[in-house]
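For this section, I looked closely at a protein sequence along with its fold in C-alpha coordinate form, which I now present.
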Amino acid sequence: MYENDALKERVILVGVCTADSDDTQYSLMELKELAAAAGAETVGMVIQNLDRVHPGTYIGSGKTEELKEQILSLDATGIICDDELSPVQMRNLEQELDTKVMDRTLLILDIFARRAYTSEGKIQVELAQLKYRLTRLAGFGRSMSRLGGGIGTRGPGEKKLEMDRRLINHRIAQLNRELKEVVRHRDITRSQRMKSRTKVAAIVGYTNAGKSTLLNCLTGAGVLEEDQLFATLDPTTRLLELSNRQQILLTDTVGFIRKLPHHLIDAFKSTLEEAKYADLIIHVVDASNPQWDMQLHVVYQTLKELGITDKKVITLFNKCDLLNEDDVFHDFRAEKNLRISAGTGQGIPELKQALEEILRDGKVLLKHTFPYEKAGEIQKVRKYGELLKEDYRENGIYIEAYVPADLL
Protein backbone atom coordinates (compact mmCIF):
# COMPACT_ATOMS: atom_id res chain seq x y z
CA MET A 1 0.00 0.00 0.00
CA TYR A 2 1.34 3.43 -0.94
CA GLU A 3 0.62 6.65 0.92
CA ASN A 4 0.79 9.84 -1.09
CA ASP A 5 1.14 13.14 0.73
CA ALA A 6 -1.08 15.96 -0.52
CA LEU A 7 0.81 17.95 -3.14
CA LYS A 8 1.98 21.22 -1.61
CA GLU A 9 1.74 24.05 -4.08
CA ARG A 10 4.94 25.96 -4.82
CA VAL A 11 4.05 29.49 -5.79
CA ILE A 12 5.74 32.66 -7.01
CA LEU A 13 4.26 35.92 -5.72
CA VAL A 14 3.86 38.74 -8.24
CA GLY A 15 3.21 42.41 -7.48
CA VAL A 16 3.13 45.69 -9.41
CA CYS A 17 4.55 48.92 -7.98
CA THR A 18 2.96 51.98 -9.64
CA ALA A 19 4.29 54.71 -7.31
CA ASP A 20 7.16 55.31 -4.90
CA SER A 21 4.65 55.49 -2.06
CA ASP A 22 3.47 51.92 -2.74
CA ASP A 23 4.78 49.49 -0.13
CA THR A 24 4.72 46.58 -2.55
CA GLN A 25 7.46 44.67 -0.73
CA TYR A 26 5.49 44.61 2.53
CA SER A 27 2.29 43.76 0.66
CA LEU A 28 4.02 40.72 -0.88
CA MET A 29 5.29 39.65 2.55
CA GLU A 30 1.69 39.75 3.76
CA LEU A 31 0.68 37.79 0.65
CA LYS A 32 3.32 35.22 1.61
CA GLU A 33 1.62 34.80 5.01
CA LEU A 34 -1.73 34.41 3.26
CA ALA A 35 -0.25 31.76 0.96
CA ALA A 36 1.15 29.89 3.99
CA ALA A 37 -2.28 30.04 5.65
CA ALA A 38 -3.70 28.42 2.50
CA GLY A 39 -1.05 25.67 2.62
CA ALA A 40 1.23 26.93 -0.17
CA GLU A 41 5.01 27.37 -0.12
CA THR A 42 6.42 30.59 -1.55
CA VAL A 43 9.50 29.91 -3.68
CA GLY A 44 9.97 33.34 -5.25
CA MET A 45 8.80 36.95 -5.45
CA VAL A 46 8.61 39.26 -8.46
CA ILE A 47 7.96 43.02 -8.36
CA GLN A 48 7.36 44.92 -11.60
CA ASN A 49 7.64 48.73 -11.68
CA LEU A 50 5.05 50.24 -14.02
CA ASP A 51 3.21 53.55 -14.39
CA ARG A 52 -0.01 51.56 -14.26
CA VAL A 53 -1.04 47.90 -14.13
CA HIS A 54 -0.90 46.35 -17.61
CA PRO A 55 -4.50 45.78 -18.76
CA GLY A 56 -3.69 42.59 -20.67
CA THR A 57 -1.16 40.67 -18.58
CA TYR A 58 -0.91 42.64 -15.30
CA ILE A 59 2.91 42.83 -15.53
CA GLY A 60 3.58 43.34 -19.26
CA SER A 61 4.94 40.98 -21.92
CA GLY A 62 8.65 41.35 -21.08
CA LYS A 63 8.22 40.51 -17.43
CA THR A 64 5.87 37.67 -18.36
CA GLU A 65 8.70 36.01 -20.31
CA GLU A 66 11.06 36.40 -17.34
CA LEU A 67 8.42 34.96 -15.05
CA LYS A 68 7.95 31.97 -17.35
CA GLU A 69 11.67 31.12 -17.07
CA GLN A 70 11.55 31.58 -13.30
CA ILE A 71 8.60 29.18 -12.99
CA LEU A 72 10.60 26.49 -14.80
CA SER A 73 13.82 27.06 -12.84
CA LEU A 74 12.09 27.07 -9.44
CA ASP A 75 9.76 24.20 -10.31
CA ALA A 76 6.77 26.35 -9.30
CA THR A 77 3.23 25.03 -9.68
CA GLY A 78 1.54 28.44 -9.92
CA ILE A 79 1.69 32.18 -9.35
CA ILE A 80 -0.30 34.47 -7.05
CA CYS A 81 -0.76 38.10 -8.05
CA ASP A 82 -1.06 40.70 -5.31
CA ASP A 83 -4.12 42.42 -6.84
CA GLU A 84 -7.47 41.19 -8.10
CA LEU A 85 -7.00 40.23 -11.76
CA SER A 86 -9.54 40.86 -14.48
CA PRO A 87 -10.79 37.79 -16.39
CA VAL A 88 -8.72 38.86 -19.41
CA GLN A 89 -5.53 39.25 -17.36
CA MET A 90 -5.99 35.85 -15.74
CA ARG A 91 -6.74 34.11 -19.04
CA ASN A 92 -3.77 35.72 -20.82
CA LEU A 93 -1.36 34.87 -18.01
CA GLU A 94 -2.53 31.25 -17.95
CA GLN A 95 -2.02 30.98 -21.70
CA GLU A 96 1.41 32.67 -21.65
CA LEU A 97 2.79 30.91 -18.57
CA ASP A 98 1.04 27.55 -18.96
CA THR A 99 0.58 27.34 -15.19
CA LYS A 100 -2.01 27.95 -12.51
CA VAL A 101 -2.75 31.66 -11.96
CA MET A 102 -4.38 32.99 -8.81
CA ASP A 103 -4.93 36.46 -7.38
CA ARG A 104 -5.14 37.90 -3.89
CA THR A 105 -8.96 37.74 -3.84
CA LEU A 106 -9.05 34.06 -4.83
CA LEU A 107 -6.46 33.28 -2.15
CA ILE A 108 -8.40 35.05 0.62
CA LEU A 109 -11.63 33.35 -0.49
CA ASP A 110 -9.88 29.98 -0.28
CA ILE A 111 -8.69 30.71 3.27
CA PHE A 112 -12.16 31.82 4.29
CA ALA A 113 -13.62 28.61 2.84
CA ARG A 114 -11.19 26.57 4.97
CA ARG A 115 -11.87 28.48 8.18
CA ALA A 116 -15.66 28.92 8.14
CA TYR A 117 -17.33 26.46 10.52
CA THR A 118 -20.77 27.87 11.32
CA SER A 119 -23.63 27.65 8.83
CA GLU A 120 -23.67 31.43 8.55
CA GLY A 121 -19.96 31.59 7.81
CA LYS A 122 -20.24 28.88 5.15
CA ILE A 123 -23.16 30.67 3.48
CA GLN A 124 -21.27 33.97 3.42
CA VAL A 125 -18.10 32.42 2.01
CA GLU A 126 -19.95 30.50 -0.72
CA LEU A 127 -21.84 33.67 -1.63
CA ALA A 128 -18.57 35.59 -2.01
CA GLN A 129 -17.02 32.78 -4.09
CA LEU A 130 -20.02 32.61 -6.44
CA LYS A 131 -20.04 36.38 -6.97
CA TYR A 132 -16.34 36.22 -7.76
CA ARG A 133 -16.89 33.41 -10.28
CA LEU A 134 -19.86 35.14 -11.85
CA THR A 135 -17.79 38.17 -12.82
CA ARG A 136 -15.28 35.85 -14.52
CA LEU A 137 -17.51 33.59 -16.59
CA ALA A 138 -17.30 35.67 -19.74
CA GLY A 139 -13.51 35.83 -19.58
CA PHE A 140 -12.97 32.06 -19.58
CA GLY A 141 -14.57 30.81 -22.76
CA ARG A 142 -12.16 27.88 -22.97
CA SER A 143 -12.94 26.62 -19.47
CA MET A 144 -16.66 26.84 -20.25
CA SER A 145 -16.41 24.08 -22.90
CA ARG A 146 -15.88 26.43 -25.86
CA LEU A 147 -13.71 24.70 -28.43
CA GLY A 148 -12.43 27.93 -29.99
CA GLY A 149 -13.46 30.30 -32.73
CA GLY A 150 -15.01 29.25 -36.02
CA ILE A 151 -18.19 27.74 -37.41
CA GLY A 152 -20.01 25.24 -35.25
CA THR A 153 -18.36 26.19 -31.94
CA ARG A 154 -20.04 29.38 -30.78
CA GLY A 155 -23.55 28.01 -30.18
CA PRO A 156 -22.74 25.22 -27.70
CA GLY A 157 -20.17 27.42 -25.96
CA GLU A 158 -22.59 30.26 -25.42
CA LYS A 159 -25.27 27.85 -24.18
CA LYS A 160 -22.85 26.38 -21.67
CA LEU A 161 -21.88 29.86 -20.56
CA GLU A 162 -25.49 30.93 -20.09
CA MET A 163 -26.29 27.71 -18.25
CA ASP A 164 -23.41 28.27 -15.82
CA ARG A 165 -24.50 31.86 -15.29
CA ARG A 166 -28.09 30.80 -14.63
CA LEU A 167 -27.03 28.08 -12.17
CA ILE A 168 -24.78 30.48 -10.27
CA ASN A 169 -27.47 33.17 -10.14
CA HIS A 170 -29.98 30.59 -8.90
CA ARG A 171 -27.59 29.45 -6.16
CA ILE A 172 -26.83 33.06 -5.18
CA ALA A 173 -30.56 33.77 -4.85
CA GLN A 174 -31.00 30.66 -2.69
CA LEU A 175 -28.06 31.62 -0.45
CA ASN A 176 -29.37 35.17 -0.10
CA ARG A 177 -32.69 33.77 1.14
CA GLU A 178 -30.88 31.56 3.67
CA LEU A 179 -28.73 34.49 4.77
CA LYS A 180 -31.80 36.69 5.25
CA GLU A 181 -33.17 34.10 7.66
CA VAL A 182 -29.86 34.09 9.56
CA VAL A 183 -29.86 37.89 9.66
CA ARG A 184 -33.46 37.85 10.95
CA HIS A 185 -32.40 35.65 13.87
CA ARG A 186 -29.41 37.92 14.49
CA ASP A 187 -31.71 40.97 14.53
CA ILE A 188 -33.99 39.25 17.08
CA THR A 189 -30.98 38.46 19.29
CA ARG A 190 -29.74 42.05 18.91
CA SER A 191 -33.15 43.50 19.85
CA GLN A 192 -33.24 41.29 22.95
CA ARG A 193 -29.84 42.64 23.96
CA MET A 194 -31.08 46.20 23.52
CA LYS A 195 -34.13 45.48 25.71
CA SER A 196 -31.87 44.11 28.41
CA ARG A 197 -29.89 47.39 28.34
CA THR A 198 -26.65 45.37 28.31
CA LYS A 199 -23.94 47.35 26.54
CA VAL A 200 -22.10 45.72 23.64
CA ALA A 201 -18.46 46.24 22.64
CA ALA A 202 -17.23 45.03 19.25
CA ILE A 203 -13.60 43.92 19.07
CA VAL A 204 -12.14 44.95 15.72
CA GLY A 205 -8.66 45.05 14.27
CA TYR A 206 -6.31 43.95 11.55
CA THR A 207 -6.09 40.21 11.07
CA ASN A 208 -3.70 38.51 13.52
CA ALA A 209 -3.65 41.55 15.86
CA GLY A 210 -4.73 39.41 18.83
CA LYS A 211 -8.52 39.89 18.99
CA SER A 212 -9.30 36.25 19.83
CA THR A 213 -6.51 36.16 22.42
CA LEU A 214 -8.01 39.25 24.05
CA LEU A 215 -11.50 37.72 24.14
CA ASN A 216 -10.11 34.55 25.70
CA CYS A 217 -8.10 36.56 28.22
CA LEU A 218 -11.14 38.58 29.32
CA THR A 219 -13.86 35.92 29.25
CA GLY A 220 -12.25 32.49 28.84
CA ALA A 221 -14.19 32.08 25.59
CA GLY A 222 -11.96 29.27 24.29
CA VAL A 223 -11.69 30.76 20.79
CA LEU A 224 -8.94 29.37 18.55
CA GLU A 225 -5.68 31.33 18.82
CA GLU A 226 -3.05 30.91 16.11
CA ASP A 227 -0.24 33.13 14.86
CA GLN A 228 -1.57 33.29 11.31
CA LEU A 229 -3.87 35.43 9.21
CA PHE A 230 -7.65 34.82 9.51
CA ALA A 231 -7.28 32.09 12.16
CA THR A 232 -10.90 32.69 13.19
CA LEU A 233 -13.78 33.89 11.04
CA ASP A 234 -16.99 33.11 12.87
CA PRO A 235 -17.98 35.81 15.38
CA THR A 236 -18.11 34.93 19.07
CA THR A 237 -20.03 36.87 21.75
CA ARG A 238 -19.29 36.47 25.45
CA LEU A 239 -20.39 38.25 28.64
CA LEU A 240 -17.78 40.06 30.70
CA GLU A 241 -18.61 40.95 34.30
CA LEU A 242 -16.76 43.97 35.65
CA SER A 243 -16.56 45.25 39.21
CA ASN A 244 -19.79 46.26 40.99
CA ARG A 245 -21.58 43.64 38.86
CA GLN A 246 -21.49 45.75 35.71
CA GLN A 247 -21.78 43.59 32.60
CA ILE A 248 -20.80 44.11 28.99
CA LEU A 249 -21.07 41.84 25.94
CA LEU A 250 -17.89 41.44 23.90
CA THR A 251 -18.19 40.40 20.24
CA ASP A 252 -15.18 39.26 18.23
CA THR A 253 -15.34 40.18 14.52
CA VAL A 254 -13.53 38.97 11.41
CA GLY A 255 -10.09 40.55 10.96
CA PHE A 256 -9.53 43.29 8.39
CA ILE A 257 -6.76 43.33 5.81
CA ARG A 258 -5.55 45.62 3.05
CA LYS A 259 -7.20 44.98 -0.32
CA LEU A 260 -10.01 43.05 1.39
CA PRO A 261 -12.16 41.78 -1.51
CA HIS A 262 -15.39 43.73 -1.86
CA HIS A 263 -17.18 40.39 -2.39
CA LEU A 264 -16.25 39.51 1.19
CA ILE A 265 -17.27 42.88 2.62
CA ASP A 266 -20.67 42.45 0.97
CA ALA A 267 -21.06 38.83 2.08
CA PHE A 268 -19.90 39.42 5.66
CA LYS A 269 -21.83 42.66 6.08
CA SER A 270 -24.32 41.04 8.48
CA THR A 271 -21.45 39.83 10.68
CA LEU A 272 -19.52 43.10 10.49
CA GLU A 273 -22.67 45.01 11.34
CA GLU A 274 -22.23 43.75 14.89
CA ALA A 275 -19.74 46.61 15.11
CA LYS A 276 -22.31 49.00 13.64
CA TYR A 277 -24.85 48.27 16.38
CA ALA A 278 -22.30 48.08 19.20
CA ASP A 279 -22.10 50.78 21.84
CA LEU A 280 -18.32 50.77 21.84
CA ILE A 281 -15.45 49.75 19.57
CA ILE A 282 -12.39 48.02 21.04
CA HIS A 283 -9.68 48.41 18.41
CA VAL A 284 -6.81 45.94 18.80
CA VAL A 285 -3.51 46.92 17.13
CA ASP A 286 -0.45 44.69 16.80
CA ALA A 287 2.10 47.19 18.12
CA SER A 288 4.96 44.77 17.41
CA ASN A 289 4.30 45.05 13.67
CA PRO A 290 6.44 47.72 11.97
CA GLN A 291 3.42 48.57 9.79
CA TRP A 292 1.02 49.08 12.72
CA ASP A 293 0.10 52.61 11.61
CA MET A 294 -0.86 51.36 8.13
CA GLN A 295 -2.94 48.57 9.66
CA LEU A 296 -4.65 51.07 11.95
CA HIS A 297 -5.56 53.16 8.89
CA VAL A 298 -6.94 50.11 7.04
CA VAL A 299 -9.23 49.29 9.97
CA TYR A 300 -10.64 52.82 10.13
CA GLN A 301 -11.09 52.84 6.35
CA THR A 302 -13.05 49.57 6.48
CA LEU A 303 -15.20 50.84 9.35
CA LYS A 304 -15.92 53.94 7.28
CA GLU A 305 -17.03 51.76 4.34
CA LEU A 306 -19.45 50.03 6.74
CA GLY A 307 -20.81 53.39 7.92
CA ILE A 308 -19.26 53.09 11.40
CA THR A 309 -17.89 56.54 12.20
CA ASP A 310 -19.63 57.73 15.36
CA LYS A 311 -18.64 55.15 17.98
CA LYS A 312 -16.46 55.62 21.01
CA VAL A 313 -13.17 53.77 20.49
CA ILE A 314 -10.66 52.28 22.92
CA THR A 315 -7.44 51.49 21.06
CA LEU A 316 -5.32 48.71 22.54
CA PHE A 317 -1.71 48.53 21.43
CA ASN A 318 -1.28 44.79 21.90
CA LYS A 319 1.85 42.63 22.28
CA CYS A 320 3.56 45.36 24.32
CA ASP A 321 5.62 42.64 26.03
CA LEU A 322 7.63 42.51 22.78
CA LEU A 323 8.32 46.27 22.81
CA ASN A 324 10.65 48.72 24.51
CA GLU A 325 9.24 50.97 27.21
CA ASP A 326 10.18 54.13 25.30
CA ASP A 327 8.29 53.12 22.12
CA VAL A 328 5.51 55.66 21.51
CA PHE A 329 2.06 54.69 20.17
CA HIS A 330 -1.05 56.83 19.89
CA ASP A 331 -4.37 56.79 18.08
CA PHE A 332 -5.77 60.33 17.96
CA ARG A 333 -9.23 59.08 16.98
CA ALA A 334 -9.66 57.00 20.13
CA GLU A 335 -11.18 57.98 23.47
CA LYS A 336 -8.46 56.03 25.26
CA ASN A 337 -5.11 54.52 24.29
CA LEU A 338 -3.76 51.59 26.31
CA ARG A 339 -0.72 49.34 26.05
CA ILE A 340 -1.60 45.72 26.76
CA SER A 341 -0.46 42.17 26.21
CA ALA A 342 -3.43 39.85 25.79
CA GLY A 343 -1.05 36.91 25.96
CA THR A 344 0.47 37.78 29.36
CA GLY A 345 -2.41 39.78 30.87
CA GLN A 346 -0.40 43.00 31.09
CA GLY A 347 -2.67 46.07 30.98
CA ILE A 348 -5.91 44.09 31.33
CA PRO A 349 -6.86 45.67 34.72
CA GLU A 350 -6.47 49.12 33.13
CA LEU A 351 -8.68 48.02 30.23
CA LYS A 352 -11.42 46.85 32.61
CA GLN A 353 -11.22 50.16 34.45
CA ALA A 354 -11.55 52.04 31.15
CA LEU A 355 -14.60 49.96 30.26
CA GLU A 356 -16.17 50.74 33.64
CA GLU A 357 -15.64 54.47 33.09
CA ILE A 358 -17.18 54.39 29.63
CA LEU A 359 -20.13 52.31 30.85
CA ARG A 360 -20.67 54.86 33.62
CA ASP A 361 -20.70 57.69 31.08
CA GLY A 362 -24.31 58.55 30.24
CA LYS A 363 -25.64 57.18 33.51
CA VAL A 364 -27.13 59.30 36.27
CA LEU A 365 -26.06 59.21 39.91
CA LEU A 366 -29.05 58.09 41.99
CA LYS A 367 -29.24 58.66 45.78
CA HIS A 368 -32.50 57.30 47.08
CA THR A 369 -34.15 55.49 50.00
CA PHE A 370 -36.51 52.69 48.95
CA PRO A 371 -39.24 51.65 51.41
CA TYR A 372 -38.87 48.00 52.37
CA GLU A 373 -42.11 47.12 50.53
CA LYS A 374 -40.43 48.33 47.30
CA ALA A 375 -37.10 46.61 47.90
CA GLY A 376 -37.58 44.67 44.65
CA GLU A 377 -36.86 47.85 42.69
CA ILE A 378 -33.25 47.66 43.83
CA GLN A 379 -32.84 44.49 41.77
CA LYS A 380 -33.31 46.59 38.61
CA VAL A 381 -30.53 48.85 39.81
CA ARG A 382 -28.24 45.84 40.32
CA LYS A 383 -29.11 44.47 36.87
CA TYR A 384 -28.90 47.62 34.77
CA GLY A 385 -26.82 50.01 36.83
CA GLU A 386 -23.75 50.21 39.02
CA LEU A 387 -24.55 49.91 42.71
CA LEU A 388 -22.07 51.93 44.77
CA LYS A 389 -23.62 51.84 48.24
CA GLU A 390 -26.44 49.95 49.96
CA ASP A 391 -27.41 50.82 53.54
CA TYR A 392 -30.32 49.28 55.51
CA ARG A 393 -31.98 51.97 57.66
CA GLU A 394 -35.13 52.29 59.77
CA ASN A 395 -37.16 53.94 57.01
CA GLY A 396 -35.91 51.75 54.17
CA ILE A 397 -32.89 50.83 52.07
CA TYR A 398 -30.66 53.73 51.10
CA ILE A 399 -28.67 53.28 47.89
CA GLU A 400 -26.23 55.23 45.78
CA ALA A 401 -25.86 54.00 42.21
CA TYR A 402 -25.25 55.00 38.64
CA VAL A 403 -28.31 54.04 36.57
CA PRO A 404 -29.41 54.58 32.95
CA ALA A 405 -31.40 57.78 32.55
CA ASP A 406 -34.47 55.98 31.16
CA LEU A 407 -34.49 53.62 34.17
CA LEU A 408 -34.38 56.58 36.52
